[in-house]
Write a structure and sequence with these properties.
Blueprint: H1 3-30, H2 35-44, H3 47-63, H4 66-85, H5 89-115, H6 123-152, H7 154-162, H8 166-175, H9 194-198, H10 201-230, H11 235-259, H12 265-282, H13 289-304, H14 306-317, H15 323-352, H16 355-378
Helix pairs in contact: 1-2, 1-4, 1-5, 1-6, 1-7, 1-10, 2-5, 2-15, 3-5, 3-15, 4-5, 4-7, 4-8, 5-15, 6-7, 6-11, 6-14, 10-11, 10-12, 10-14, 10-15, 10-16, 11-13, 12-13, 12-14, 12-16
């Protein structure tokens, strides 16, 4: 299977995942759920992935990516279908858990496959193309979901999202694609222990930076529907604002294969942390749609250029035969923030408003940039 085919399957699966996060959030608000309840629903997308990501990575390392990707697509499709047959708040918990766990498996598997394509010097560019696919689906998800809600309602939009993972499901079942695999693990490498990866200094810096950037991304995904609803914006307007965030990510990733030749990965990652901190400082001060679009674009430019650099660094510094496991550890770190951040942000937002939520994240990102750069200087 070629890279563009993998990217296409990823776009379809991620569109369902990304759209469902917005749809679950807005449908819960429509059902008069509190900010804290919305936070628990968003955490449901990440709870099991947080616990199972390392095991998923080891499974992909051992057995290859085809069957994990098939099972992942099936889980996402079934999760999107559940609320259509049984609408209600409690069904959303089951749906979000199933969709989140399914996409985690797909994410771990496809990153391992893309990392195994080509030579080490081509890896950042390959991950840039995969990230570009994520940008397309990050734009499609909110846009399709927002306009579908206004046109056909919340419940029917779940059925629409169910259609997206069907193509990956059929391809993995019928075509039996040959997927490249990473280098085999050395026979004398010993037992696999997560602490071995965490004790690896270059890998540990990648995990820290990746976790912080994912928190910045998750906060936007979780808070923007609530912030937009409280500001009186319609579902389609919220989708358009969030779509501008994704379009900015797409634009910067389109240029990344050229920029990679002129910048170092850690320079890009540090800049992304600082840009995100600056945007979150001023975001709650505005409710004008053009200004929200502009801020979303700046945030998208900052966060969009970081992921390919993170993944290239992660794959290049992982021990042979443990690349999927390393992706799993990163996914665990990401989902730990995705589980706790909505709960903490929802509780804080319900108690004191959304402003302190944005400003707390800005302070954390600024501190994280300082810590990561200081550790690099010591290495």
């Amino acid at each position: 299977m070629r890279l563009w085919q993998l990217v296409t399957l990823t776009v379809l699966t991620h569109t369902a995942f990304n759209g469902s996060r917005m749809l679950v959030s807005l449908y819960a608000i429509h059902l008069h759920a509190s900010a804290f309840t919305v936070g628990t629903l968003m955490s449901s997308f990440a709870l099991l992935p947080m616990l199972l990501a390392v095991s998923a990575g080891r499974l992909v390392d051992r057995s290859g990516a085809r069957w994990p990707m098939f099972g992942a697509s099936l889980a996402v499709a079934l999760g999107a279908l559940l609320p259509f047959f049984r609408p209600g708040l409690w069904t959303l918990y089951a749906a979000s858990t199933l969709i989140g766990t399914g996409f985690m498996m797909f994410h771990v598997a496809v990153n391992q496959v893309v990392g195994a394509i080509g030579r080490a010097e081509e890896r950042a560019a390959n991950f840039s193309w995969l990230a570009l696919g994520f940008s397309v689906s990050s734009s499609l998800g909110p846009l399709v979901t927002g306009f579908a809600i206004d046109a056909i309602g919340y419940v029917n939009t779940f059925l629409l999202l169910f259609l997206f993972p069907l193509t990956p499901l059929i391809v993995m079942w019928l075509n039996r694609p040959a997927l490249p695999r990473a280098k085999e693990r050395r026979a004398d490498a010993g037992d696999s222990r997560i602490m071995d990866l965490l004790h690896n200094r270059p890998l540990r810096r990648v995990f820290i930076a990746s976790g912080l950037l994912n928190m910045a991304w998750d906060l936007y995904t979780f808070v923007m529907p609530i912030f937009g609803s409280r500001s009186g914006l319609s579902a389609s307007t919220i989708g358009a604002v969030m779509g501008s965030f994704a379009i900015a990510i797409f634009a910067v990733r389109l240029l990344l294969p050229l920029l990679i030749r002129h910048v170092l990965p850690w320079q890009v990652i540090s800049a992304a942390l600082l840009i995100s901190a600056a945007v979150y400082c001023v975001f709650p001060l505005f409710t004008s749609v053009p200004l929200l679009v502009a801020l979303s674009c700046v945030l998208g430019l900052g966060l969009g250029c970081s992921q390919p650099m993170v993944m290239a660094l992660l794959y290049n510094t992982s021990p042979p035969g443990r690349q999927g496991e390393a992706v799993g550890v990163r996914t665990t770190v990401m989902n730990a923030s995705s589980t706790t951040l909505p709960l903490a942000s929802g509780a804080l937002g319900a108690a004191v408003g959304m402003g302190p939520v944005f400003w707390s994240m800005a302070a954390l990102l600024g501190a994280g940039a300082h810590i990561v750069n200081r550790r690099r200087a010591r290495a």
